[in-house]
Amino acid sequence: MGTSASATSQAAPFAPTHQADHQGNGMAEHRRSLQSVNIHNSKTKSIITNKVAPVVITNNCREEFQIHDKIQSSNYSMGRISDLLPEHYLVLGEFFMVQDIYNRADVLNTTKSHGAPNFRKVKGNYPLFGMGQPSLNGFKQVLQRLQIDGCEEVVFICVRKEPVVFFRSDGDFIPYTPRGRENLHENLHDLDRELSAEQIELSIRKELCDFAKLSENMFYVYNDIEHFKDDPQQVQILSEEDIHVTEEVYKRPLFSQPLHRYYRLPLPMEGAPLEETFDAFVNILRVTPNLSLMRDSSRPLPALLFSCQVGVGRTNLVLLIFHLFHRQEIQKSEHKLDFQVIELLISRLPKGQQVLDEVDDAIAMCSEMHNIKDAVFENKLKLEGIGEDYQIQGKSTKAYFLQRTLQSLERYVYLLVFNAYLHDQYPQAFPQSFSQWLCMNAWIYRLLACMDSSELSAPASLITDGIRVLVSSKFLATDLLSTAKEMKVANFRRVSKMALYGMAQPNSEALAVVMSYLTDQRRGHSTILWLNLQEELVLEANGQMFTPREPGSLEQPIPVCVQHPQKLQILIHPSDSILCEKWLGVITEQDKQMRMFKTCHTIEELFVHQKSVHPGLSYQRIPLSDCCAPKEEVFDQLLEAMKSSLAEDPNCAFIFNCHDGKDRTTAAMVIATLTLWHINGFPECEEDEFVSVPNAKYTKGEFEVVMQVVRVLPEGHRVKREVDIALDVVSETMTPMHYHLREIIISTYRQIKMAKSEADAQWLRLRSLQYLERYIYLILFNCYLHLEKKDSWRRSFSQWMSQVAAKAGVYAILNHLGFSEFENPDDSLMARLRFRWFPHSAQFIPM
């Protein structure tokens, strides 16, 4: 008989109705729906209302429309910025629409002359341009200006991550962004990780059209968030054509200029972009013939135009990235960043000094609005000059400026890395993406993981700055194995039938007891290698062991990231006046108190004394991170230490300790067990026992990602089984702990569902991934021991991983690490090497 249709918003004004009427008066809803139908009144014969939707019948009785455009106002939220301003609907349930660009943002004063704020060309001959956010007419003016200047081809890249919509105003479309009430000056950069900015913009437009239908075709926006003069202002919305999204503003003008291209590649406000963003930049080069090495030199280079909100931070970053593609004469910079991570990176990169000079030169060429190196210096100076600590955006000033310094330093370092990639791949037409190249050079991720606070604060301040407290080892190390009474140290144990021992951190008394025990007539170890696995600072004060911790996270060690472990011993000299004769905050197993110490000693000093009593004792410190897979060089150091000691005495005993004798000690004992088995022979292996408990394969470590690695490795199943046996053997020494390096993987992952908060869930997710990665690394190390045994392991594990395992795709697998049986690993940043290897605290974990 008729057809049903959903109407487009072409509404005439209607009287506002209170929210209670929206919910309870069906006729009022029908009236609003009718006004949204684009049917001329002369064609309407009758309107029939019903409980489903109004029906419109035309005069000639040939057409019937049932309206299904009912808007439920109860689905939307209302709010006001202050009690003095009107209440209105909120975008996405909580946000106000604020004019994107304020007047003072246009520092270069180019909006009228060029069409966009802060429009500029980079120094030199290459046509690189940057600008802030233009209106629709402003963007057209920019394109006209480039055309007048002879730019036949334009590649325009918007690097904004936040959603932007454009309201019709005086023949133009003006940009507005949603912002929160608590910070009306800040755009929203992480609204929804699963949705793109374009998708969010479309959702916002749909909501705005609904709001207009509920509010006489009007919506409130804000143009002056400083004084709210004449705010909020009403904008008229009759249809979707009164609102543009970013894609419409930037793509529609390009139809008249077929040589122009548009891309949206969101960049973060701070820090370095993700690797796939660099990959996207490279893909633009691949699809733009006039930017390739094989381009027609007779044709002019395409103009590259970049835009963010005000045309400063993100625009400057992308200008630098593309400037590196076009190298010019290098002018060496006198302004150097003095950071260890930069020095080490340049020393290892091919053409490292040239890579550095080119980046510094590019920064000089693109520094009219922003200088990345200056940003590092400025944030570092602010960090060093902080006196009284207060809150900035929910963080202490020190934490805030530390994060800002690290983010600006990360940007600079990633420019160096990307330039090194260009040197390697650009002449070959990019056979590898930046992501793939980094997985083949995973040592860069390891180096970047040391770009932490250890370079930005004096070592002594770890204890004496009045912020951190000294925590007693007895508070941190629960004696689950009940060995403190006899051995004076927590969790002392031995691997069955092997001269391998583990324990918590001993003080001088416990050290003497343990040495007497190992060298007595029954055991008779004449040669002993003691390996301390702690990466945090430890000292003995008044006969007790202490370590500095943050008051808010006493369980979290404060690592000191150094490239040379021996330096860890001399970072602090507690025997000096730094600690002695000063009142310090101390937490023991009983309470928190202020103490003054009379005697202070480093771990090194304790072992120097014991060596004078037991000449066969050797001591090394090989720092491991708690709960993580040991770094490749840690495997090298442990293997070399054991090889050297066994070469001198085949009956040498090995002792490992960390702060509690649990996590790191157990991992090192497993590595030592595998090493000794390869040297002395493997025990007889029994057949796999049948386990009937639910999901037993996960308890046995048979995760999809683990089996993916196993399939790659020669005799992978045998290699994994040997690791499992070693784990079981070491676990037998610590049964009361109920701690197993393999079984803890799935048990930790299952706790995520029971987490009390999102932060706790993310922390458990990170821990489960770290445990999973450590298990895989033990399998890889065992494979290395098998394959390199014929050459007496002359090639190190680090070299084997980079020269052999990386080419087999191992790091690529680890760069998508996760529990694919239960979820998509790539939904979490922790699946990536870059984020998983970076030092984390329980307070800050990237989602």
From TrEMBL:
Superkingdom in the source lineage: Eukaryota
Show the InterPro entries listed in the entry: Prot-tyrosine_phosphatase-like, PTP
The scientific name of the source species is Cyprinus carpio (Common carp)
Q: What is this protein called?
A: Phosphatase domain containing paladin 1b
| Region Disordered, annotated ranges | 1-31
Q: Where is the composition biased (Polar residues)?
A: 1-11
Q: Which Gene3D superfamilies match?
A: Protein tyrosine phosphatase superfamily
**PANTHER family assigned:** TYROSINE SPECIFIC PROTEIN PHOSPHATASE AND DUAL SPECIFICITY PROTEIN PHOSPHATASE
